[in-house]
Amino acid sequence: MNMKKIVFIAHDPGGYDVIFPVVQRLQQETVSMNFYCLGPAADLNPLYGASETCVLQTIHSLLQEKKLSGLVTGTSWGNNLELKAIAACKEAQIPTVSILDYWSNYQTRFKDDSDRFVYPDYYIVMDELAAKEAVQTGVPSGILKVLGHPGLDKYAAYLKNRCCSDRITRKALFLSQPLSSLYGGELGYTEQQALDGCIRALQGNGNYSLYVKFHPKDDINFQKKYCNIAVQGNLTDIMPEYDLIIGMNTIGLLYAVLMGIPAISYQPDLRQADMCVTNKLGLTRLIDSYQDLELILDIGINGQDSKTINLPKNLIWLDGRSTERVAGFIREVLLNEI
User: Fold this and answer.
1) Which of 133-142, 150-159, 192-201 is predicted with the least confidence, judged by mean pLDDT?
2) CA 210 to CA 194: how far, in whole Å?
3) Which residues sit opposite 5 in a β-bridge?
4) CA-to-CA distance for 208 and 304, rounded, in angstroms?
5) Is 207 helix (H, G, I), strand (E, B) or coil?
6) Helix (H) or strand (E) holding 124
7) With 60 as the cut, is the pLDDT of residue 208 above it?
8) Domain residues of the chain, as ranges?
9) How confident is the model at residue 307 (pLDDT cuts 50, 70, 90)?
10) Distance (Å, whole) CA 47 – CA 20
C-alpha cells in the first residue's frame, strides 16, 4: 500500500471550488493527503487554513523524506504559492496537477514574478472549449486533460429539477468580482462602474430591487460603500432567492443558468475579448452599454425561458460526474492506482 501523501493547495475561491469536492471524494477512499487553504480559501474553510510559510516548509520536508507522491493545486491570481510548490515538486520529479476553475487567463495563471511560465505536468480543464482556448494562448497541448469541472457537479443536478419563481416582488443580485485589481482599466470598465450602472438603471424601476454579493477579494472600501445592499452566504443557497442575476464575466452566471434563474452579463464599454463563458456558449448575451442595460431591465428578460434553454451537447461537465473523473485521474497518475 502506498503511504506517501498527496498535497492539495487552494488559494482563490475558484480554486477551492474545484479542489474541495475532489478532496472530499478521496478522503472517503482513505487516500493519505494534506489539504491546505490559504488566503480567501481559508476564509471559506478555516478548518484547513494554513500560512504560506507552513505549506512550503511541509512540501520541502515531504520531498526530502521522499514521502510526497504528488501535488494538486488551483490556478490563483496575485499569489505565487502554487507556482513555488509546483516548481519545487518538478525539480524533485514529483508529478503535479493543476485544476482550472474558469474559461480565461489560461496561460498567465502560471507566470511567476520573473515572467517565466511554471506549468504543472497535468493541467485539468473543464471542456473542449477551454482546451482549445488554452492552446491558442500558448499553453502546451500535451499537458491538457479535459475532465470537467468538479465545482459544477452540484449545479448540474439543477438541470433535472427546475422550477419557476412566482414572486411578485422581484429581486436582482449583482455578482461582483475584483476585476480592477487584476486588469486595471484594460477591460474598459471596472466592477465599481458596472455596479453603479446597475444601481442607476434600477432607480425608479419598480420591477426590481437590487442587492450585491461581493467577492472575497473585492476592495474593502468598495464593499463598505455599498454595505447597505450587500448580502452574505453561499451562492448555491442564496441565488434561488433572486429573480435576476447580473454579473460581468463571473462563473456565477453559469450557476444561475443551470439553476434556471434569468441572468445577464453587463460589461459596459468592453474593449477586450469577452471572457464570459455563458456568453461564449450562447446561454447569456453581452450587454455592453448602459442604454441596453436600461432597456432590458425595463422590458424584463422573461423571454429567456431558462427551462427550455439549449445547452451544447459536448460539455462533459453537464453529466455531474466531474469530481469522479478528476479523483480517478489523480489516483491513477499520483498514486499509480487505476
Assistant:
1) 150-159
2) 13
3) 68
4) 17
5) coil
6) strand 122-125
7) yes
8) 5-155+318-334, 163-299
9) very low
10) 12
More confident of the two residues 16 and 305:
16
Domains 5-155+318-334 and 163-299 share a fold: yes
Dump pLDDT digits (tens) for 52-90: 999 999 999 999 999 999 999 999 877 899 999 999 999
Q: How far apart are CA 209 and CA 172, in angstroms?
A: 6
For residues 89-119, one letter each, b for 16 or more C-beta atoms within 10 angstroms of the residue's C-beta and e for the rest, the string is bbeeebbbbbbbbbbbbbbebbeeeeeeebb
Cell numbers linked to 327 = 479523483
Total residues belonging to the chain:
338
CATH class of 5-155+318-334: alpha beta
3-state secondary structure of 173: strand
The four Cα atoms 262, 267, 268, 271 give a dihedral, to 10 degrees, of: -150
All three cell numbers of 89: 515538486
Confidence bin at 303 (pLDDT 50/70/90):
very low
Q: Region 180-189: what's the mean pLDDT?
A: 93
Reading the block at residue 141, the C-alpha cell is: 497541448
Q: What are the residue ranges of helices labelled H in 144-274? A: 153-156, 179-183, 191-202, 220-225, 235-238, 252-258
Q: How confident is the model at residue 224 (pLDDT cuts 50, 70, 90)?
A: very high
- The strand pairing partners of 245, in sequence order, are 173, 263
Which helix or strand (DSSP H or E) is residue 171 part of?
A: strand 171-175
Q: Which pLDDT score is estimated for 290? A: 96
Task: Give the closest residue to 293 by CA, choosing from 222, 219, 223, 208.
Answer: 208
**Superfamily covering domain 163-299:** Glycogen Phosphorylase B; (3.40.50.2000)
**Residue 168 reports pLDDT greater than 90:** no
At 88 the three-state DSSP class reads: helix
Give the residue from 266, 262, 313 showing the smallest Cα distance to 290: 266
Q: How far is CA 117 from CA 27, 250, 273, 331, in A?
A: 31, 25, 22, 26
